[in-house]
Amino acid sequence: MPAMKILLIEDDLDLGNGVRIALTDQGMDVVWTRQIAAAWHQLSQQPCDLVLLDLGLPDGDGLQLLARLRREHGSLPVLILSARDALQDRLNGLDSGADDYLVKPFELAELLSRIRALARRSYGFDGELLSLRGLQLHMPTRRVSVEGQPVELTVSEYELLRLLMMRAGRIVTRRTLEEQVLPGGPGNASNALDVHMANLRRKIGDGWVRTVRGVGYVIDQETR
Amino acid sequence: MTASSFRLPPPPGPRAALVLVLVRVGRGLREALLAVVRPSLVRRLLVAQLALLMLLWVLGIAYLLHQGGRAFLLLQSKQIYPTILAIADDTDSTPERRRQALDLLHASIVEEYDTSPERQPAILVTRGTQVLYRSRNAPEIPPLDTGGALVTVSTPTQRLHARTVAGPHGLRATMFGPNDGWNLLRTIYSDGFYLMPLLASLPLLVLPAWLSIRLAMRPWTAVAREVARRGPQELAPLAYRDGHRELALMVDAINGWMRRVAESAQRERSFIADAAHELRTPLAAMLVNVEALRAATHDERERQLMTGVLSSGHRATRLVNQLLTLMRSDAAAAEPVVPQELDRLLQDRLAALEGLATARRVELVLSAEAGLRIAGQRGAMESLVDNLVENAIKYGPPGGEVRVRLRREGGQALLAVEDQGPGVPAALRERVFDRFFRDPAQREPGSGLGLSIARSVVAGHGGRIVLAEAAGGHGLRVEVRLPLL
Predict the structure, then answer these.
(1) Which one, A128, A167, B72, B273, has least CB within 10 Å?
(2) Does the beta carbon of A14 lie under 8 angstroms from any beta carbon of chain B?
(3) ipTM value greater than 0.85
(4) Min distance A149 CA to chain B CA atoms (Å)
(5) How much is the average pLDDT of A191-218?
(6) Which of B2-16, B214-228, B234-248 shows the lowest mean pLDDT across its residues?
(7) What predicted TM-score, i.e. pTM, was given to this entire model?
(8) Is residue A21 within 8 angstroms of chain B, CB to CB?
(9) A120–B contact, CB cutoff 8 A
(10) Is residue B296 within 8 angstroms of chain A, CB to CB?
(11) Right CATH number for A5-124 from 3.40.250.10, 3.40.50.2300, 1.20.1050.10, 3.40.50.300?
């Protein structure tokens, strides 16, 4: 796999340099600019796989850059790095088209995990086949296989698995699953979700779906 | 000495019980007395009103008395003079009979008056300069003729009213009456008709007057109540809009004062928020640089030192984040209040905190009753849950559980977060809510802001937060009660 190309737009010298070195050490190909104009120049010269964007830049607001990026570069993944952490700021960032939002200061591990998640979303997944550890889910045909063996799932079980695999590594709350998977939404029999989940587990086997009691379910990216 | 400080032997003897009762009665009396002695605007108005009323009344009576009698009504009587003159005329030829008849008349007149002769009316009958009859209490003065008018005459010993009426054959009847303050009082007394209504109606007037004043003072009371209901952060102008002139002055003054306080608090908050905000980028830079360095180094000693730097950096990060949250939860007004589904909120936040729990090998367990909703601010409620659960994860032992429970309790939602850590000693359970206060026995790093944030959010949502011992006596249980929608 070729090195992931990352465009880092950050005006703080110490932070920009630190992120550049840390990501380079992880085998990524990082181009660092400190101004919007330079970022445009860079984007026109050489395509990249992912943009790390600071919001407060000396020659403009990162959100404006983001809006133009969305118009001209379509689905290029953008991760905002910002010191603004109010709910409204985060919503603004995501509404403007960012794929994720990370508040400074962040831990390097968190940054790397988010970058990898975005990269997987953009080119590990071709829009048809979800693949994780030994699980495979082909969306157009709704076929599911575990360690190469096909498994028959009901509609609800398939939807459960699809949601969990789409958000692998993150907990999907019971509320979200109930709303998106159960025919009547939440509010019908309170253990309907548990019943579907028990059936799904019986069919795909143990060790895939982890329960967080009362909160939701998660399929971890690596075995624990 | 207060009643509660009495140490009674069990069972209390009758004497002690009596003393207790006396102390209570005494205290009740003292309170009643204090309530009476305490200055009161209503009472001032009431007293002023009644005093004014009495003054007007007295002035009215004085005027009446002045007009009506100029003291002695008898002296102005139309009937008494013709009677005297008729008797004097009829007995003109028999002076002895005249004296007897007039004495009898005089006696009948004075019967209803004071017993002391100088205060009784006196009669003098004359013809020219000749005195035909002089009652025994009449002054020793020469005959006079007032021509039907009431005049004042002075003798060496007293001042008298006198009035002379002319009759047939040159006869003149003169009557005297005392002219002094006593006379006035006496008249008032004898004509109880003036005084009685005043005395009788005064108590009856007090109640309506008191009621009317209380009614008139209602806007005042309303403003006082509104001010009393305000919390320390509620500095919006008062809702009072009626504009009574006297009250508007005070309300404007209070509003102005609250505006100044709010502005100053706002300046302080923005300063702290700005400062915290500005710290974030350098903190991020430091952390990223050290982390990159640590990842690259293979020297165990260097790695340890860098881990120390990182740990301090993370503490500073947490402090900065909490300061910002605190300033935001104090500012409160910015975020809209909308219905919040508590079970959804808890699931979302616990899902987000699961990473931290996993890193510390702590298991999160949520048991939430569905359908409980409160009116709340999303961001503030998130920081409430985050702070409580983060604390529980941090202070609980590795491999332990953090239990989060939500259920209905009357009209309130009861949210309980339990850990299996060392708990908080009962003596410190109030103080740990103070900003920057930390349990001295606690070695886990922390900012000392988490619980103040929690309390600030809970107070902003009209709820209560208390610390208790976890079930089984081991660990801390934080209970939050919030009014349901």
Answers:
(1) A128
(2) yes
(3) no
(4) 31
(5) 91
(6) B2-16
(7) 0.56
(8) yes
(9) no
(10) yes
(11) 3.40.50.2300
Q: Which chain B residues touch A188 with a CB distance below 8 Å? A: none
Q: Is B289 on the interface with A (CB under 8 A)?
A: yes
CA geometry: angle A190, A191, A194, nearest 5 deg: 140
Residue B187 has a pLDDT of: 56
Which residues does chain A have within 8 Å of residue B317's beta carbon, measured at their own beta carbons? 105
Q: What phi and psi, each to the nearest 5 degrees, are found at residue A94?
A: -70, -40
Strands (E), B314-424: 338-341, 363-368, 373-376, 401-409, 412-418
> How is chain B split into domains, by residue range?
1-37, 73-178, 227-334, 335-483
**Which residue, among A169, A158, A166, A159, has the nearest Cα to A218 in the 3D structure?**
A169
Q: Read off the pLDDT of residues B417-443 as tens digits, 9 standing for 90 and up.
A: 999 988 888 888 888 888 878 777 776
Q: Which residues of A touch B382 (CB under 8 A)?
A: 87
Question: What's the CATH fold of domain B73-178?
Answer: Beta-Lactamase (3.30.450)
Residue B7 has pLDDT above 70, yes or no: no
Residue in A22, A87, A171 closest to B288 by CB:
A22
Sheet of strand B130-134: strand arrangement: B130-134, B122-127, B171-178, B159-166, B150-154
Q: What is the mean pLDDT of chain B?
A: 81
DSSP class per residue in A150-196: EE---HHHHHHHHHHHHTTTSPEEHHHHHHHHSTT-TTS-TTHHHHH
In this predicted structure, the answer to whether residue A15 has a pLDDT above a threshold of 90 is yes
Average confidence (pLDDT) over B124-141: 83
Query: At what angle are helices A87-95 and A62-73 packed, to 10 degrees?
Result: 20
Radius of gyration of chain A (CA): 20
Question: Given an 8 Å threshold on Cβ–Cβ distance, is A86 in contact with B378?
Answer: no
Residues of B in contact with A212 (CB under 8 A): 350-351, 354, 364, 366
Any B CB within 8 A of A126 CB: no
Cβ–Cβ contact B354 with A under 8 A = yes
Alpha-carbon distance of B84 to B99, in angstroms, equals 11
Residues sharing a CB contact under 8 Å with residue B256, sequence separation 6 or more, in sequence order: none
The Cα B73–Cα B188 span in angstroms is 12
